[in-house]
Structures are given as structure tokens and as C-alpha cells.
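This entry is listed as follows:

___
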Amino acid sequence: MNAPRVVAIAAGSHVFGAAHAPALEAAGADVVGLFDINRAGAEATAASRGWPVLDTLDELLAVDADLAVIASPHPLHAELAERALAAGMHVLVEKPLAARPSEARRIVEAARAAGRVAAVALQHRFRAEVVAARQIVATGGIGDLYRAVVVSTYPKRATYYRTAPWRGTWAGEGGGVLLTQGQHDLDTLVHIVGMPSRTVGWARTRVLPIETEDTVEAMLEWPGGATGSVSISSAASDPPSRIELHGSRGMLRLTPGSLEITRYPEDFGAFAAADGGAFDVFERGETLTQAGGGGTHAEIYADLFEAIAAGRDPRATAADAVPALDLTAALILSSSRDAPVSLPLDPGTVAAYDEFLNHHISAVPGVAS
């Protein structure tokens, strides 16, 4: 593939300027157009790179380009992705894929209908420790999954939300810490061990002056009987972020840049069933630490450009991103209903989440649903 021609929507956003722009340069992309309703922001991104800034979205979508990058606020992702796909472009959507499961499904269907790739910026899938953990679990390295634990915090000042008034609002962001920061944690979890079959969650706004949740606690259950817990907050600090997976043959502990692996000499199920002393100690074996790293936007673009050229799927497609978004909606709905929610979401529950979000948007003075 020749240097891919790329346009970008919301090119004045922080995430585009800080992450996407340098990654596009590193990938050797031919950036042929930027657009942002905040033209000054797009011009600041383009200034040192010689990239053209266009006046309107229609003008941008008329450019002869291979790929559209979408870095807008979440509730705009679906509409913008659909328009870019209809214009004949592949799309890369900054995470989360959308603000609602219904919108995520629209993007998946639009990509299928257009015969184009819809990818999502889920760069944690490229972390070496995540790749290794997924392979270990898939090949039975920890045996039957018993328990999964996710703990992740993203401490924020109130000023973070004031710098962009759409943040932390139902209308402008579509959700809180689960949708914006915790999406990486939820995606990494389901990427490695698969989708839970149900969840019960508690979403609260504990500290920060926002409409949406800043703290979530949840319990999960998988089809095979494994259970787990999720704790994600932007109103606390509990470093490092981590995912622990406990199985019958071992355990894994993922932290940024590191993977701890403990392999048991025997399966715990066999140990429990075997004859032996009533107080025999189960031997856990040695814990080894494997260095990780990576997980950058540059890796996303390298993989995406290779995938487009080869006619294959990239590592994180729109369809791949739906489970974590379903889990996000299920946790919020569970909290609002004070009841478990089954997964994956059925059409009725997808519609119920739309009703939930519309209600919260319409409840804000001066905001229409």
C-alpha cells in the first residue's frame, strides 16, 4: 500500500494532537485534511506539519482519502463514522467506539454495508503483556478460570472537566469513568477471558462535580461459573492499575509494562479430589515476571495500514469493541435498576439503555434529548 491518505475529524482535540498526530507521522501517512469546529485547535495541530485544514466537514468528506480518523466527543462517533464510511473511507474511531451500544451496532453495520474497515483505538491490546496473557489463557496455561479482578483508578481534578464542558455530562460525553477511562480496562478483560454472562454494579458520583459516575464497583459471572470484580474510579488513587486472573493451574497479574505468572505444579481440582492428608498444603510454584511494554497509537496505525493493504481485519475492529461497551451499559443499568443485567445485551436491553440515557439528557435544563 502506498502512503495512506488520511483525514481527521476533531483534529483540534487533545487526544488527536497528543497521540494521533505523532503516530500518523511515524507511520508515514499522507494527511490530506483536518477539520475541527474549533479551527484554531486544528491549525495548531497542523502548523508544524504542513497539513491542510479544511473549512467544513462536507469539504473534508469530499477529499479523496483512504482513512478517516474520528476523535470527537463520544456521542458524535456513530454519525461521523457512518458519514465517512458512506464516503468510501475506512475509519479509525478513538475509544470508546460510541456512547451507546445501539450506536456501536450502527457503526458495525455501516462498515459491513460499505465493505470498509471500522477500527477502534484500543491500544492496550498491543501491550506485550496483554498479548502474552491472552495467549496463556487461550492455551490453558492457567487452567479453568476461577476469578478475575480489575482495579483501576484515574485520579482527576475538577479542572479536568472544566477544560472541556462536555466532559462528565450525559449529553456531551455519554458517560463517566467507565466509558472514558475504564473502557480500556473492560476491553482488556473481555479480550483475554471473554464476555461475562451477567453483572451487578454500583455506579456513584462520589467526589467530582460531574453529572456522570466517577466510581464503579461491580461483580461479574462468566458462563463457566467463574466470578470476578471490577473497581474503577476517577475519584481515588490506588496504583498500579491491575488485572488478576486466578485459575485452577495458575494465576496472572497484569500491570502496566509487566506480567507476573504463577504456574501451579498440579491442577487444583485434581489436588482437591485426590487422597492425601487432610492438612496438606497446595504448592503454588514459582512466580515469574515478564517485562511488557508497547500499547501505542503508532502500533495501532501500523497494524491498521497493514490490515487495509492485506484485506484483513485489524487487531481491534468495531465489532471487537462492542462487548466492552455492552458491559459498560450493563453496569450502569444494573446500578440504576438495583438488579443484575445479563450479557451480551439483547435488543430490549439495548433499547432500555437508550431510554436511560435519553432520560438523563432531557433531565438537564436546556438540553434536549
